[in-house]
């Protein structure tokens, strides 16, 4: 049943209470990995059905796609719990199954169809939502037995479908939903979605077709959600959207009161507010616009003796390519920016800054010279964390109609060359950390008592890990520890606790 073999996550109520492990029926796909992944087991929600004299209906959830889809799944589960539903750890125990789909790449569409088919075969009562649900005819053409199909963020339509498939009787013994909602991540970190949709018209992307134009949440609503997460024990926030640097542009940056002062619905004011909570805060999906320069001075330092807190010196910037002509054909925003110069200026302000990015090789018309430009740019940029896609001819994307598509064998070769260069850069950067000390957060503890942790330079399930020798010392998940780096590989660090 595990739709994503590299990682599975089951529902947690952020209570910190130890509960039996499950088989990972509730699943979530992380973004592209640049390092070997691991399977994560999280505590399951308690089964209340045996404790109540009232009828309790159970719903299963299969969540595919990016962290933004994961947040959608969390919101659906939160609403279900508020209405008295429990959650099933397997198909057999579910009165209905929700499949939250991904439709970004053809491979993701195929996986979503497979997940729907599996749920139909194992359970029979299936409700489809998410990005692939934006095309109901496509889904019902493949799987006519699904009960309902809804698009992304259509939470109320999902609820209506669940109510029809598995109506629940009023139950006065149902527990209240925790203030922070229900999360599919461990207790100590959470994804914080600040907007939906995107205004860009990138040639290879159909996200605006699936999720609509940019729709930002008011700044005070985002900050209140962050406060609730902090109160529930979350120690790390990962800010996500389609374009975090464009946050509030659709609303023209109105101001709202929060903690005694007016704050604009703008990425700078949002970052300042989040930083004031003292949590590790990461900004994902940032474009290198000029106004992003103002964020760098807000970031803390991570190389000192004190534990870092607030806005981390970490930016996730989807550059996608370096050559101006390729970026023009891709219709990328900020394509004309001098990114190397900007990176140098940012690093001069905060030398601890870590930059991760993703790239596409084999885009239609990409010449060998343009690809070599990308390799040369990578050497100059010295990015810390890098992932790479081979171009896929996505249905509905304008890039399908471009001339001079790159042969698959050329894409494969360029992907291998790119990753070899990226791996070499990563290995050198991590080797330079051997002998230094850093703060790390413990994500899990293995069977030998060793800790699988991360430094401030690494986002969960996306970047590398720090493997810390237990040495007969106890660790706690979510704990901040001081470590000395003893060794390094291409993507991960090894350390001892100090």
TrEMBL record:
[4Fe-4S] cluster 1 binds at residues 66, 102, 131. Residues 57-167 form the MTTase N-terminal domain. This is Ribosomal protein uS12 methylthiotransferase RimO. Belongs to the methylthiotransferase family. RimO subfamily. Its main location: cytoplasm. The gene is rimO. Catalyzes the methylthiolation of an aspartic acid residue of ribosomal protein uS12. Pfam families: Radical_SAM, TRAM_2, UPF0004. PANTHER family: RIBOSOMAL PROTEIN S12 METHYLTHIOTRANSFERASE RIMO, RIBOSOMAL PROTEIN US12 METHYLTHIOTRANSFERASE RIMO. It comes from Albimonas pacifica. Residues 431-498 form the TRAM domain. Its EC number is 2.8.4.4. NCBIfam families: 30S ribosomal protein S12 methylthiotransferase RimO, MiaB/RimO family radical SAM methylthiotransferase. Transmembrane segments: none annotated. It comes from the Bacteria. GO terms for cellular component: cytosol; ribosome. The keyword Transferase applies.
């Amino acid at each position: 049943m595990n739709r994503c073999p590299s990682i599975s996550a089951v529902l947690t109520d952020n209570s910190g209470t130890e509960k039996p492990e499950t088989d990972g029926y509730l699943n979530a796909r992380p973004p592209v990995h640049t390092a070997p992944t691991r399977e994560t087991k999280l505590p399951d929600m308690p089964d209340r059905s045996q404790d109540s004299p009232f009828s309790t209906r159970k719903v299963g959830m299969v969540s595919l796609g990016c962290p933004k889809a994961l947040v959608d799944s969390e919101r659906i589960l939160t609403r279900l719990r508020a209405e008295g539903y429990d959650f099933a750890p397997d198909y057999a125990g579910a009165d209905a199954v929700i499949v939250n789909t991904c439709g970004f790449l053809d491979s993701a569409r195929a996986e979503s169809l497979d997940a729907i088919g599996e749920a139909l075969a194992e359970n029979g009562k299936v409700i489809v939502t998410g990005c692939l649900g934006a095309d109901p005819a496509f889904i019902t053409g493949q799987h006519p037995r699904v009960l309902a199909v809804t698009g992304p963020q259509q939470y109320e339509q999902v609820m209506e479908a669940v109510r029809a498939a598995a109506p629940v009787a009023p139950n006065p013994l149902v527990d209240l939903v925790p203030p922070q909602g229900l999360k599919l991540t461990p207790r100590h970190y959470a994804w914080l979605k600040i907007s939906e949709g995107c205004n860009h018209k990138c040639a290879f992307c159909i996200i605006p077709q699936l999720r609509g134009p940019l729709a930002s949440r008011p700044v005070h609503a985002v900050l209140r959600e962050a406060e609730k997460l902090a109160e529930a024990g979350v120690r790390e926030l990962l800010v996500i959207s389609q374009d975090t640097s464009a946050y509030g542009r659709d609303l023209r940056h109105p101001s709202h009161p929060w903690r005694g002062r007016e704050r604009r619905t703008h990425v700078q004011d949002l970052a300042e507010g989040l930083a004031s909570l003292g949590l590790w805060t990461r900004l994902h999906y940032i474009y290198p616009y000029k106004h992003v320069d103002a964020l760098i001075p807000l970031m803390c330092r991570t190389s000192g003796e004190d534990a870092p807190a607030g806005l981390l010196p970490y930016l996730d910037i989807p550059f996608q390519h370096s050559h101006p002509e390729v970026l023009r054909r891709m219709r990328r925003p900020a394509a004309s920016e001098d990114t190397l110069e900007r990176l140098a200026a940012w690093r001069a302000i905060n030398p601890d800054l870590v930059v991760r990015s993703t790239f596409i090789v084999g885009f239609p018309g990409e010449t060998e010279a343009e690809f070599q430009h990308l390799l040369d740019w990578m050497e100059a940029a010295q990015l810390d964390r890098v992932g790479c896609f081979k171009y896929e001819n996505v249905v509905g994307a304008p890039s399908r109609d471009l001339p001079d598509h790159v042969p698959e064998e050329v894409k494969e070769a360029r992907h291998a060359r790119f990753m070899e260069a990226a791996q070499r850069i990563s290995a050198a950067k991590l080797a330079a950390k051997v002998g230094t000390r850093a703060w790390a957060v413990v994500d899990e503890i293995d069977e030998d008592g060793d800790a699988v942790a991360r430094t401030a330079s690494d986002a969960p399930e996306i970047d590398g890990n720090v493997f810390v020798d237990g040495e007969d010392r106890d660790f706690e998940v979510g704990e901040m520890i001081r470590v000395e780096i003893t060794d390094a590989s291409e993507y991960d660090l090894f350390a001892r606790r100090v």
